[in-house]
Design brief:
Layout: E1 11-16, H1 19-22, H2 26-36, E2 41-42, H3 44-47, H4 54-63, E3 65-72, H5 80-96, E4 99-105, H6 109-114, H7 117-130, H8 135-150, E5 154-156
Parallel strand pairs: 1-2, 1-3, 3-4, 4-5
Helix pairs in contact: 4-5, 5-8
């Protein structure tokens, strides 16, 4: 079969994170280490230019990556963008064999899997905002459950 049937891979790694609680600590160190080792990495502050359609740029970058690292932090699920990324990442995992690595940064994986503590609060707010039977919120919850159920991940619980 011709190689044109394979998706174009512009990035080796796509980093998904909640910017407000990650950008200037763990993420910056990870991003720097990846780049210093010659690993092409997409992070939204680098790959999104002012005026770009953020959503389409992020979804394209996910499709064009070999590996997605999702850094689950306490505030991650409060972001609709982050939940959209997780849903797209899981879609690409199934359809395009995207490799997915969850990292639990100061969050117990059970919080994500069971939708408790900050994850329960954030998902309940999304249910309220979009309506309890919202297909969008159901898709997000399903993606989170699938991700944590089928993948191990790395837990960084130190405070």
């Amino acid at each position: 079969m011709a190689s044109s049937s394979k998706p174009k891979r512009n990035y080796e790694v796509f980093l998904s994170f909640r910017g407000t609680d990650m950008r200037n600590n763990f993420l910056s160190h990870l991003y720097k280490a990846l780049n210093q080792n010659g690993i092409s990495t997409f992070v939204d502050s680098e790959g999104v230019r002012k005026g770009d359609q953020t959503s389409s740029v992020l979804m394209k970058a996910i499709r064009e990556s070999c590996l997605a690292v999702i850094i689950f932090s306490e505030d991650y699920a409060s972001s609709r963008w982050c939940l959209e990324e997780v849903a797209k990442i899981m879609e690409c995992k199934e359809q395009m064999n995207l490799i997915v690595l969850p990292v639990f940064y100061k969050v117990d994986p059970r919080e994500v899997r069971q939708g408790i503590q900050s994850y329960g609060t954030a998902l309940a707010k999304h249910d309220y905002d979009f309506g309890k039977d919202s297909e969008k919120v159901k898709r997000w919850k399903k993606a989170l459950l699938m991700l944590v159920a089928c993948l191990g991940g790395i837990s960084l619980m130190g405070k």
